[in-house]
Amino acid sequence: MSRLPPLAAIRAFEAAARHGSFTKAAAELGLTQAAVSYQIKQLEDRVGAPLFLRQARKVVLSEAGKRLAPAVAEAFQRLTLAFDALRRTDEGVLSVTAVHTVCTNWLVPRLGTFQIAHPNIAVRLDASSRWVNFAQEEFDVGIRNGNGVWPGLAVHKLMPLELAVFASPDFLARAGAIDSPADLLRLPLLDWTDNAWRRWFTFAGIDDPRPTSGPNIMVETQAMLGLAAANGQGLALLTPAFFRPEIAAGRLIQVLPIVVPEDMDCWLVYPQERRNQPKIRAFREWLLQQVGRDSQVI
Description:
It contains eleven helices and nine strands. By secondary structure, the protein is of the alpha+beta class. The strands form two sheets. Strands 3, 4, 5, 6, 7, 8 and 9 form a seven-stranded mixed β-sheet that branches.
């Protein structure tokens, strides 16, 4: 059991001692004068001595109060400094969790502009496919794929997710003519076991696609798929928005003009109650600005 008196009583004493007035202490603490008087009476009962001398129009510290007041004031000052330091540290680091390809192919190449605009905020990145629990883990914001319905989270749509087939120029030079979706079935389809291929072929009018090429690479992320495709290892289903530099440089070429919309989008998310936190507000504004610039390029 704690030997300390209730914190509310100590806080009332500190404010009254500093102001020399129960009325001014009550105004500062958002209490009534009677409530402050009651808290101090509790404290006096606890220490067994009067802490204030009640005079006609004012209160003054008793001898016991004079001995106690400096130590209490110092304790509250230390607490204030500790919380201020913690707040500054917390505001100086932004923890971001994002799905792998969004993180490596889209976010990381742009972060330099955020650091220039906000040199006092360090960014800590976590590339992961899992959905973090913001109430239990120390992340500020997340970039995740889904339908945008997550109770308790503020959401901002960043971009729709689409899939198209890409390959390298060297691969296409070796592949021969590709005039229709059926022509793809004789070529290596990277990560064929991913259901996204079947969705793409269904969208393209082939309900039961059966590739004739042998086993190929199976990977976990689009970033790996894009790298394999750019190195001539086969055809890959990729989200064009995540590979703009490779497409612009000609390292990846869209094979057919068929773009399949995914059944989910890419979102910025964070806890609703933290929406006005300065570092989150800064990141949100910067990120949405980046998305807006991309939409103008398309």
